[in-house]
């Protein structure tokens, strides 16, 4: 995962008082990509994006392909720089604007406050599937044996054959890698979890497992912000769908 390092807007807006239970509030968000290999052409993606995520709910980002759903998710996780606007993330001492957070702060927020299940697993050479899943818990200070126990539980629930657990996932199928990725994302307990198409390569049985995992997170008070191309999954988990094409800066 990359972290943007460029400075953002000149002035950091004052933190708002987020309503009780609000974990994330996106305000007036705008982003355009600059295509340096195309003579600096600017490609506007979203303008004026705004929505909130409350504890115990799942908000789905909807809209057609290319509308900017993944770009919004990446801005919330601090992977993409924002041009204007604010992304208020609830922290223990009050809201932090992710759009202005320094890289070190962002890494700390990722450890404690915000998790992310990316679309594809980033394979780490020579690390077993079990340790890929257990690693975020170990990074939080959980003892390796305990972290691996929880990882085993999740991999078993996601029907990953036990013979694969000790192998690095580089050679796994797309669906097997996605299940390792989902397990890695769901193992920790940050209050906000971002999901980028977590069921895209999964069969119906494992899609249902992911739906159950999301439902359990919601019941424990986690807020989720996700992209679900599969309408059945979206209908099963989403409390609200935010149509990103409403924030488009050009026809999609
Ligand atoms: N790093 C990048 N550099 C340049 N353009 C980009 C970059 N990332 C995304 N885009 C462009 O921004 C637009 C929005 O892309 P994005 O992936 O956010 O859409 P999406 O709604 O998630 O699409 P899909 O449903 O197909 O995944 C697209 O036109 C895409 O080409």
Describe this structure in words.
The chain is an alpha/beta fold and 252 residues long. It has 2 domains: 156 residues, P-loop containing nucleotide triphosphate hydrolases (Rossmann fold, 3-Layer(aba) Sandwich); 68 residues. Strands 6-7-8-3-9 form a 5-stranded parallel beta sheet, sandwiched between helices. Strands 2-1-4-5 form a 4-stranded antiparallel beta sheet, with helices on one face. Helix 6 links the parallel strand 7 and strand 8. It is globular. About 2% of the residues have low confidence. The site of adenosine-5'-triphosphate (ATP) has 10 residues, from strand 2 and helix 1.
Briefly say what this structure is.
This protein has seven helices and nine strands; from the N terminus they run E-E-E-H-E-E-H-E-H-H-H-E-H-E-H-E. With 252 residues, it is of the alpha/beta class.
Main attributes of the structure:
four-stranded antiparallel sheet; 252 residues; 9 strands; single chain; five-stranded parallel sheet; binds adenosine-5'-triphosphate; 2 domains; Rossmann fold; alpha/beta
Ligands bound here? adenosine-5'-triphosphate
**Helix share, percent:** 25-40%
Judged by helices, strands and strand pairing, the structural class is alpha/beta
Give me the CATH superfamily of the largest domain.
Answer: P-loop containing nucleotide triphosphate hydrolases
Largest sheet: 5 strands, parallel
User: What number of domains?
Assistant: 2
Question: Strand order within the widest sheet?
Answer: 6-7-8-3-9
Q: Termini distance?
A: 28 Å
Q: Class of the largest domain, according to the CATH hierarchy?
A: Alpha Beta
List unreliable stretches of 5+ residues.
Answer: 5-10
- Proportion of residues in extended strands: 25-35%
Gross geometry = globular
Q: Please, how many helices?
A: 7
Give the strand tally: 9
| CATH T-level topology of the largest domain | Rossmann fold
Radius of gyration: 18 Å
Pfam family, one: ABC_tran
Domain ABC transporter: 24-252
Keywords: ATP-binding, Lyase, Nucleotide-binding
GO molecular function: ATP binding; ATP hydrolysis activity; lyase activity
């Amino acid at each position: 995962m990359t972290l943007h390092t460029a400075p953002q807007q000149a002035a950091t807006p004052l933190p708002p008082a987020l309503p009780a239970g609000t974990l994330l509030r996106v305000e007036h968000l705008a982003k355009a990509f600059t295509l340096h290999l195309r003579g600096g052409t600017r490609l506007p993606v979203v303008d004026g994006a705004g929505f909130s995520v409350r504890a115990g709910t799942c908000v789905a980002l909807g809209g057609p392909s290319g509308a900017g759903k993944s770009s919004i998710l990446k801005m919330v996780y601090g992977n993409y720089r924002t041009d204007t606007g604010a992304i208020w993330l609830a922290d223990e001492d009050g809201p932090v604007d992710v759009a202005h957070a320094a890289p070190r702060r962002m890494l700390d927020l990722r450890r404690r406050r915000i998790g992310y299940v990316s679309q594809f697993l980033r394979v780490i050479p020579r690390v077993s599937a079990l340790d890929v899943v257990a690693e975020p818990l170990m990074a939080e200070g959980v003892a390796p044996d305990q972290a691996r126990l929880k990882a085993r539980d999740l991999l078993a629930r996601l029907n990953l054959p036990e013979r694969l657990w000790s192998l690095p996932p580089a050679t796994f199928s797309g669906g097997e890698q996605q299940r390792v990725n989902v397990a890695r994302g769901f193992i920790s307990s940050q209050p906000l979890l971002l999901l980028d198409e977590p069921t895209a390569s999964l069969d119906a049985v494992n899609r249902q497992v992911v739906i159950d995992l999301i439902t359990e997170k919601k019941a424990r008070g986690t807020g989720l912000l996700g992209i679900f191309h599969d309408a059945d999954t979206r209908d099963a988990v989403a409390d609200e769908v935010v149509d990103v094409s409403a924030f488009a800066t050009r026809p999609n």
